[in-house]
């Protein structure tokens, strides 16, 4: 058995369990922590793909930034951070059923589809290449989205401040 | 120059002018000018039409024209009139004209009232001049919708309920109608929505006709107060303001009969022949049932509404007999009922405006208090129960003679049953007259009430003159509609 | 020897539907946000996986994931700002109480 | 005879003038306008009749039908059309004379009788309308025109009976009259429809071929038309409106319920006589039996009524039935062989119109004098009202059938016709004639003889038993007595008119000859009736009367209540039709049909309420539905692919 597969399986199990805890835990702090595990796991997956830069971004932005935001939010909210009332059983079951159906269906589809996914070369992406692509103006270059992203982030920052600001 | 579009242009101009009018004087001026113009126009049209016919114009439809306005679905604004539509246009003009005077003192929001009122008449005129299925349906809807607001806002009693009920039931009818129209259009495989061209093709398969004839007939029949789809009529009429009742009973209910004849029967002839018996039974029930219900009502407007059910039932009844005489009678009955009911509702409105009750048990001796209105009421009553010399008699007799000439036991039997309505009509009319007009006035408050004002007198006199004119000289109308009826019947 | 792409895809699908389940059943705004993050994350994984396995020579999936992370960050920032504000006004972030916008 | 249009035009003009401008006229002006117009109409009618009869017989020895006017009023397609016009036949000429004469008398009489009444102008307007419609009825060129005017007659009588519109009884009576006759008219209409369809025309005289084709349905059609006639002519059981109609002003009763409207049914049958004889002799006999029964019924009821106008009303019913019987007993169209009844009937119609008009007008004068209809307020009036007394007596003798008054001659012909038909019928009718003499003289004695109510009251007043001085009866003014005198004169002389010269069943001249046996019998019976009445009532109610009253209390009570016919009708109309049909239908309409639609609306509303939670604004729910939907679609697609 391939060592990669074993690591992957371990990672997958951790991620799934953490995700389940993340959505079922009644304490938000715990949920956030579990989310953090999932995010780390995702970064691990990126490493598997040799997308190291992506993995790094995942860890810094997601795990480092977003989760911190969550934690701040939870701290600020305080007692509201406990999800006291559980949803009604009916909706619980409905949600469960829908999600399971969807999941099974998707897995079924994935299993039955030929993605022509045999071109994996394990080389990853060179940072230079990535930098050229992000800043380039040619075909398959992403200067415009990149700039739009930056504007968006700016807008979000300003917006978040505006919203959260006390009157 | 085709003058028919003027029937649309004038109401639109009126709408604009009303929109701009600043006070009640201007509003009234616009209404009087507009409705007078319409009246003059329809009188001119009638005369011109008769002259053209006398000059030998033998086409089914005169003044025809067509403008395409939505090519992909072959929808066109095609217009044209035959004797029936001319008569109906004349009727509408008279009612719109008198209705204006009947709501002379209407408060509040006079301008808005007249806006909707004009929109309603726009729909009516448009319906009568159109020869295109879709355009007809569009105008039909235009005529129905303002009804909701007119009753719901300016009505009395349980107005919201009644307005809602009326609108819903009529809209239900429209839904059937729309299905019917689509069925006709697609069933015939036509590349036009013009009814005459569809009729000329005569290409609708019989089994499709069987489905869509009932739909179309019921669709229009709801408006024509076909049993058992008539229950909007009592409530709707009872709550509607005077001129709306007039217009509704006088003209709008005629749209039903007209549509049944012009669309349902004309375009779906085989089904009409084969399925007529079902509707004959229903209409016979309408006729007798409406009259019997009227006997035990205590609200003046309910009595009249049920009476309308009975009389409009007679219209549909006659149409279904499919003889020329009966159908001519049906058109005469539409005219006659339109005028008489308008007169009745006008009078009831005027009486109600004074006594603030329509309960016949609470009124007595009005003859002494308001002689003009009372005499008008007696005349309307006598006209309604078919007194010779008024229009009702002519129409009913034509219908009965025509219906009786269908030579089989079923038709004979239903004709005789329908005949009994003339006795029942006498009962409920005389009951009301005896109850509220005769006797000594016993309510002291009523003794102070005044008689009709000039505008009310004008309304009543206009209508009485029309009713009497139609009753004394029916031959010209009968000739006028005869040709139209003939050409439609030849297709059935 | 690499892991088959399907495994990755299945993993991401499972994560996605867990996120969906959470979104359906949780009653707390922050929990909803967490579920959303899970779903976004699953999507990012898919982008990366498809890029790596199907078209390794190009960068679309990669860049998309990158942007996805950026957008997620922005969205979370705004969302949390809103949540805090809501909490300040309602003293709760329980969605059942937040019905003022409905009417 | 183009001028004959004036016969219809003038009364109509009178009606329109008085109806539209009446309120601006003084009473006097209105009355005089109406009367003068009618005078002109009367003159023209007389002239027309004279002209018609003077024109002489045609080659067949009959007075041919003359049609000065006829135009198509309303074409009905398929060859049928309703025509309007003026047609003169012997009987319509005769009717013109009768109607205008009686109407003129009533017009003049009303000048005095109605003086000072509220709505005087309206009264004259209605009289003109009535005269117009009645004249239109008799000159009708076809059955449909007749029906049209028939309806107009109904309406104008409705208006006249309900003239005192503040009196509840008058309102009820007018309503009843209209509805009952309308009910009968329904049958008339159906009869006309059948007739029109099968013969292809509304004419009174369709072609031979058309008649042969319609021979099978003619009896039905004619019977139905007769029912219509029975309604107007107050035949049992449709007679109930007539006694009540006495609520109208008395001159109106004289005009409508004695001389004109009520004979419309007789006129109808007479106008259709040829059809009856040729195609439906059986129907004629039905008419005869119906008439005979009505005659008996009405005569019996008349014997015990206390309201003098009611007595006259029932006497009218009885006399009309005589005319009907006379028509009904005809078996052929030759007056010498079975057709005598036709002439007799018309003759009786003529004489009866005069003397019954006289009786009613006399009764009006009496009521005018004592201000009551009840016999107990009368008695001994002969001293106070000599002219009325004499004229009333003449009329009573005429109706009782005493020569030389007109009633004798006409009634004798009727009885002769009855004997010709069958002996039982003859005897039956003779007995009713005797009964007629009895009740008329009972009435006469009760009014003019016996103890005077006025004197009794006066005595009591003098003795201080009552406060108010009683009103002294007085003779009527000249406007009222003049018509009485004229009618009395006609009644005395009319019997000697050679009526058969003008009118007979086949149109040929027929010389009236008295059948001695019948005449003697009927005179004896009439005298016996009068003698009995004299014995019983000359001094008020004698001991015999009281004794009879006591022994026959139950039957008399029943007869007084007209054998409960009104109650029976009331039961049918009120209880059955109104309460058991109309009410339930109204209820059904509100609570079943309407409720169904309301329920539909409610169900729609319920459905709306049911699906409303799906749109509750909860994003979670939305998303569940969204996802489920999407999954469903995917599943379906998968299944399809």
Tally of DSSP helical segments of chain B:
21
Largest sheet of chain A: none
Oligomer: heterotetramer
Backbone shape of chain A: globular
What is the share of helical residues of chain A?
over 70%
* Number of domain modules of chain A: 3
Instruction: Assign the structural class of chain B, choosing from mainly alpha, mainly beta, alpha/beta, alpha+beta, or little secondary structure.
Output: mainly alpha
Topology summary:
The complex is a heterotetramer of chains A (167), B (492), C (103) and D (641).
Chain A: H1 3-24, H2 28-48, H3 52-77, H4 89-111, H5 127-135, H6 143-164
Helix pairs in contact in A: 1-2, 2-3
Chain B: H1 6-20, H2 24-54, E1 62-70, E2 75-81, H3 83-102, H4 110-129, H5 133-154, H6 159-188, H7 195-201, H8 206-223, H9 232-239, H10 242-267, H11 269-295, H12 300-321, H13 324-355, H14 366-369, H15 371-384, H16 391-404, H17 409-419, H18 421-437, H19 444-447, H20 454-472, H21 475-489
Antiparallel strand pairs in B: 1-2
Chain C: H1 5-25, H2 29-54, H3 60-90
Helix pairs in contact in C: 1-2, 2-3
Description:
The complex is a heterotetramer of chains A (167), B (492), C (103) and D (641). Chain A is mostly helical and 167 residues long. Chain A has three domains: 1-82, Four Helix Bundle (Hemerythrin (Met), subunit A), CATH 1.20.120; 88-113; 124-167. Chain A has helices at 3-24, 28-48, 52-77, 89-111, 127-135, 143-164. In chain A, helix 1 packs antiparallel against helix 2 (28-48) and helix 2 runs antiparallel to helix 3 (52-77). The longest helix of chain A is centred in the middle third of the chain and has 26 residues, at 52-77. The termini of chain A are far apart. In chain A, 29% of the residues are buried. Chain B has one domain (6-491). Chain B is built from 21 helices and two strands. The model of chain B has no long low-confidence stretch (mean pLDDT 85). Chain D is mainly α and 641 residues long. Chain D contains 26 helices and two strands. In chain D, helix 2 runs parallel beside helix 4 (120-138), helix 4 (120-138) runs antiparallel to helix 5 and helix 14 runs antiparallel to helix 15 (340-370). The radius of gyration of chain D is 31 Å and the shape is globular. The model of chain D has no long low-confidence stretch (mean pLDDT 83). Chains in contact: A-C, A-D, B-D, C-D. The interface between B and D is large, with 59 and 49 residues.
Summarize the structure.
The complex is a heterotetramer of chains A (167), B (492), C (103) and D (641). Chain B is 76% helix and 3% strand. Chain B is mostly helical and 492 residues long.
């Amino acid at each position: 058995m391939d060592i990669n597969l074993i690591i992957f399986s371990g990672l997958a199990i951790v991620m799934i369990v953490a995700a389940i805890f993340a959505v079922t835990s009644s304490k938000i702090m715990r949920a956030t922590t579990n989310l953090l595990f999932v995010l780390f796991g995702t970064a691990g997956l990126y490493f598997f793909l040799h997308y190291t830069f992506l993995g790094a971004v995942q860890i810094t932005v997601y795990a480092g930034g977003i989760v911190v935001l969550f934690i701040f939010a939870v701290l600020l909210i305080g007692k509201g951070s406990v999800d006291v009332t559980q949803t009604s059983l009916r909706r619980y079951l409905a949600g469960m059923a829908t999600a399971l159906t969807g999941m099974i269906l998707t897995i079924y589809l994935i299993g039955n589809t030929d993605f022509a996914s045999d071109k994996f070369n394990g080389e990853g992406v060179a940072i230079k290449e990535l930098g050229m692509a992000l800043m380039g103006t040619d075909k398959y270059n992403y200067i415009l989205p990149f700039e739009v992203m930056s504007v968006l982030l700016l807008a979000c920052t300003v917006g978040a401040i505006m919203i959260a600001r006390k009157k | 120059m085709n003058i028919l579009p003027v029937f649309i242009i004038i109401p639109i101009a009126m709408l604009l002018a009303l929109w701009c009018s600043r006070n009640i004087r201007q509003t009234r001026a616009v209404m009087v000018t507009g409705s007078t113009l319409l009246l003059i126009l329809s009188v001119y049209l009638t005369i011109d039409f008769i002259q053209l016919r006398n000059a030998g114009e033998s086409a089914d439809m005169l003044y025809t024209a067509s403008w395409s306005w939505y090519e992909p679905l072959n929808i066109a604004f095609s217009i044209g009139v035959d004797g029936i539509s001319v008569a109906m246009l004349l009727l509408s003009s008279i009612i719109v004209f008198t209705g204006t005077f009947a709501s002379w003192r209407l408060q509040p929001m006079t301008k808005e009232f007249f806006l909707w009122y004009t929109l309603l008449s726009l729909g009516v005129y448009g319906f009568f001049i159109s020869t295109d299925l879709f355009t007809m349906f569009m105008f039909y809807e235009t005529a129905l919708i303002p009804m909701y607001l007119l009753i719901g806002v300016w009505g009395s009693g349980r107005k919201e309920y009644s307005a809602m009920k009326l609108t819903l039931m009529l809209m239900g009818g429209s839904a059937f109608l729309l299905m019917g129209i689509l069925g006709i259009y697609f069933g015939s495989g036509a590349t036009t929505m013009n009814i005459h061209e569809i009729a000329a093709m005569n290409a609708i398969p019989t089994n499709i006709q069987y489905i869509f004839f009932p739909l179309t007939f019921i669709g229009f029949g709801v408006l024509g107060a076909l049993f058992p789809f008539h229950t909007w009529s009592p409530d709707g009429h009872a709550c509607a303001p005077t001129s709306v009742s007039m217009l509704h009973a006088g003209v709008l209910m005629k749209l039903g009969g007209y549509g049944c004849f012009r669309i349902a029967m004309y375009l779906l002839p085989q089904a009409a022949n084969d399925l007529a018996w079902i509707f004959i039974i229903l209409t016979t029930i309408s006729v007798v049932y409406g009259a019997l219900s009227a006997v035990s009502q205590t609200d003046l407007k309910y009595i009249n509404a049920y009476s309308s059910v009975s009389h409009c039932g007679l219209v549909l009844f006659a149409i279904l007999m499919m003889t020329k005489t009966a159908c001519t009678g049906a058109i005469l009955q539409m005219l006659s009922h339109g005028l008489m009911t308008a007169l009745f509702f006008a009078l009831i409105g005027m009486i109600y405006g004074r006594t603030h009750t329509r309960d016949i048990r609470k009124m007595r001796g009005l003859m002494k208090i308001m002689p003009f209105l009372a005499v008008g009421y007696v005349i309307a009553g006598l006209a309604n129960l078919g007194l010779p010399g008024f229009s009702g008699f002519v129409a009913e007799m034509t219908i009965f003679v025509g219906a009786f000439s269908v030579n089989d036991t079923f038709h004979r039997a239903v004709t005789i049953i329908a005949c009994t309505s003339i006795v029942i009509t006498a009962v409920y009319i005389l009951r009301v007259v005896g109850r509220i007009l005769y006797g000594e006035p016993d309510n002291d408050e009523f003794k102070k009430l005044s008689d009709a004002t000039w505008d009310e007198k004008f309304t009543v006199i206009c209508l009485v003159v029309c009713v009497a004119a139609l009753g004394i000289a029916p031959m010209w109308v009968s000739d006028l509609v005869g040709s139209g009826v003939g050409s439609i019947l030849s297709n059935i | 020897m690499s892991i088959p792409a399907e495994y990755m895809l299945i993993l991401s699908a499972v994560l996605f539907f867990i996120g969906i389940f959470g979104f359906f059943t949780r009653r707390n705004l922050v929990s909803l946000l967490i579920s959303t993050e899970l779903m976004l994350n699953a999507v990012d994984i898919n982008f990366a996986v498809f890029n790596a396995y199907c078209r390794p020579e190009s960068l679309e999936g990669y860049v998309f994931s990158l942007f996805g992370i950026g957008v997620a960050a922005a969205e979370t920032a705004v969302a949390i700002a809103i949540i805090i504000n809501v909490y300040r006004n309602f003293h709760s972030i329980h969605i059942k109480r937040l019905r003022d916008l409905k009417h | 005879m183009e001028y004959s249009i004036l016969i219809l035009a003038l009364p109509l003009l009178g009606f329109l003038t008085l109806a539209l401008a009446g309120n601006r006229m003084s009473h006097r002006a209105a009355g005089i306008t109406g009367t003068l117009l009618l005078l002109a109409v009367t003159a023209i009618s007389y002239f027309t009749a004279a002209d018609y009869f003077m024109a002489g017989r045609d080659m067949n020895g009959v007075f041919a039908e003359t049609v000065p006017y006829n135009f198509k009023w309303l074409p009905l397609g398929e060859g049928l059309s309703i025509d309007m016009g003026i047609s003169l036949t012997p009987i319509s000429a005769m009717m013109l004379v009768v109607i205008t004469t009686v109407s003129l008398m009533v017009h003049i009489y009303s000048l005095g009788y109605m003086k000072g009444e509220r709505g005087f102008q309206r009264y004259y307007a209605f009289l003109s309308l009535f005269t117009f419609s009645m004249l239109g009825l008799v000159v009708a060129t076809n059955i449909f025109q007749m029906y049209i005017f028939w309806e107009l007659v109904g309406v104008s009588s409705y208006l006249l009976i309900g003239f005192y519109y503040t009196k509840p009884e008058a309102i009820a009576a007018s309503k009843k009259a209209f509805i009952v006759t309308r009910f009968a008219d329904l049958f008339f209409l159906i009869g006309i429809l059948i007739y029109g369809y099968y013969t292809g025309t509304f004419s009174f005289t369709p072609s031979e071929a058309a008649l042969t084709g319609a021979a099978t349905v003619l009896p039905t059609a004619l019977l139905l038309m007769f029912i219509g006639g029975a309604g107007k002519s107050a035949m049992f059981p449709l007679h109930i409106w007539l006694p009540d109609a006495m609520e109208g002003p008395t001159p109106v009763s004289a005009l409508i319920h004695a001389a004109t409207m009520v004979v419309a049914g007789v006129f109808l049958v007479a106008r259709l006589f040829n059809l009856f004889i040729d195609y439906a002799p059986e129907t004629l006999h039905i008419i005869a039996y119906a008439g005979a029964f009505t005659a008996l019924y009405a005569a019996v009821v008349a014997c015990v009524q206390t309201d003098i106008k009611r007595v006259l009303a029932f006497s009218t019913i009885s006399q009309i039935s005589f005319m009907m019987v006379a028509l009904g007993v005809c078996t052929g169209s030759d007056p010498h062989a079975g057709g005598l009844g036709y002439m007799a009937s018309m003759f009786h119609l003529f004489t009866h119109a005069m003397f019954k008009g006289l009786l009613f007008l006399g009764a009006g004068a009496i009521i005018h004098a004592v201000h009551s209809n009840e016999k107990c307020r009368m008695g001994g009036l002969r001293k106070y009202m000599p002219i009325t007394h004499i004229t009333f007596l003449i009329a009573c003798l005429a109706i009782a059938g005493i020569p030389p008054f007109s009633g004798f001659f006409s009634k004798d012909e009727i009885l002769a016709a009855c004997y010709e038909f069958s002996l039982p019928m003859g005897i039956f009718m003779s007995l009713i004639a005797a009964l007629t003499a009895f009740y008329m003289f009972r009435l006469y004695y009760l009014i003019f003889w016996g103890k005077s109510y006025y004197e009794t009251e006066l005595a009591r007043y003098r003795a201080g038993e009552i406060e108010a001085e009683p009103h002294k009866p007085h003779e009527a003014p000249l406007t009222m007595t003049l018509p009485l005198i004229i009618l009395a004169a006609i009644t005395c002389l009319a019997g000697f008119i050679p009526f058969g010269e003008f009118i007979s069943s086949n149109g040929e001249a027929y010389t009236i000859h008295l059948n001695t046996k019948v005449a003697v019998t009927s005179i004896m019976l009439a005298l016996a009736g009068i003698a009995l009445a004299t014995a019983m009532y000359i001094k008020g109610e004698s001991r015999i009367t009281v004794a009879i009253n006591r022994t026959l209390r139950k039957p008399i009570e029943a007869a007084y209540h007209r054998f409960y016919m009104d109650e029976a009708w009331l039961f049918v109309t009120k209880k059955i039709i109104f309460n058991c049909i109309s009410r339930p239908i109204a209820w059904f309409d509100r609570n079943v049909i309407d409720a169904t639609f309301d329920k539909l609306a409610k169900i729609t509303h319920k459905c709306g309420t049911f699906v409303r939670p799906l749109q509750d604004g909860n994003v979670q729910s939305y998303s569940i539905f969204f996802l489920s939907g999407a999954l469903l679609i995917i599943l379906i697609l998968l299944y399809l692919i």
